[in-house]
Every structure is written in structure tokens, then in C-alpha cells.
Amino acid sequence: QVQLQESGPGLVKPSQTLSLTCTVSGGSITTNYYYWSWIRQPPGKGLEWIGYMSYSGSTYYTPSLQSRTSISRDTSKNQFTLQLSSVTPEDTAVYYCAGTKLRGAAALTSPSAYGFWGQGTQVTVAS
Fold it and tell me: First CA to last CA across the chain, in angstroms?
């Protein structure tokens, strides 16, 4: 059973870089056809997909956040990391890491495509 666990600071100051790490157990992040995403939910709003890293290391980000987003990985630790730069209070949200195995024409930019989820971590942007 694949399990994911987010870690990182719960409070980030405006203009700084938010950095979160997802540790995956029960499976390798390099296993063929698996995709690993970051998804967030601002207070009172729906889930927002941020970006993914594929099993091969390729990345794709939502256009609205692309200029501020970077997803990287450490295969030796079976972890992938989100960095979101120049944060503002509007980036306050519960952040989730999630994974899925690509099946057909699944929309990997939709949170509903993901079957494995971390429990989520609250990140607040405030001075």
C-alpha cells in the first residue's frame, strides 16, 4: 500500500519561498507510469492542482503558478519536493501530495485522478 507524508514549515512569511517535502513509502517514485503531484485547498475553496513530477522526472505545472513553482525529487530518499516562491497570504492553504498510476487518457491535472494522498499539511503565509 502506497503511503505519502508531507513535511515542512507551517508558517511562511510573505515574499519568502514555501518548501514542502513528500515522503513516499510502499512504492518507488520512479516506478513506470506513476505521477506525483502537489495539490492545495485554500480556506473555503476547492482543491487546486499545482503540478506534477512523473516517474521519469519530467514536470508540468498549472499555468497560473508556473512562474513561481518548482517540483524536484530525491530518488535515494523516495521524496519529492515543492517550492513555491514569492508567497503571499493568498497561498495560505492545506497542501497535499498525491500519487497515481497513469491509466489511459486520465487528466493528471485533476485532483480526482489521484488515488494516493497524504493527510495534508496547513501552510499559513503571514508576517
Answer: 39
